[in-house]
């Protein structure tokens, strides 16, 4: 049975990306679009996606 817990290092390895903790941290920092005071739940893109999904 597949584990319900998926770890970042496993995901990165499956995608062929460097999967050490420092590599993952750099990847996240480089691709982060929200500032430190923004919450993902309040991200405007999620509102537009939710509208598209529910239509």
Mean pLDDT across all residues, rounded?
78
Q: Low-confidence spans: pLDDT under 50, at least 5 residues?
A: none
Q: What percent of the residues sit in helical stretches (DSSP H or I)?
A: 40-55%
> How many β-strand stretches?
0
Q: Element order, helices and strands?
A: HHH
Radius of gyration: 15 Å
Shape: extended
Strand percentage lies at under 5%
User: How many individual domains?
Assistant: 1
Q: How many strands, what sense, and barrel or not for the largest sheet?
A: none
Q: Count the DSSP helices.
A: 3
Q: What gap, in angstroms, lies between the N and C termini?
A: 34 Å
Structural class: mainly alpha
Structural overview:
With 55 residues, this protein is an all-alpha fold. It has one domain (8-54). It is 53% helix and 0% strand. The chain has helices at residues 8-14, 21-31, 44-54. The chain is extended. The termini are far apart.
What features would you highlight for this structure?
single chain, 55 residues, mainly alpha, 3 helices
Gist?
With 55 residues, this protein is mainly α. The chain has helices spanning 8-14, 21-31, 44-54.
Task: Lay out the secondary structure.
Layout: H1 8-14, H2 21-31, H3 44-54
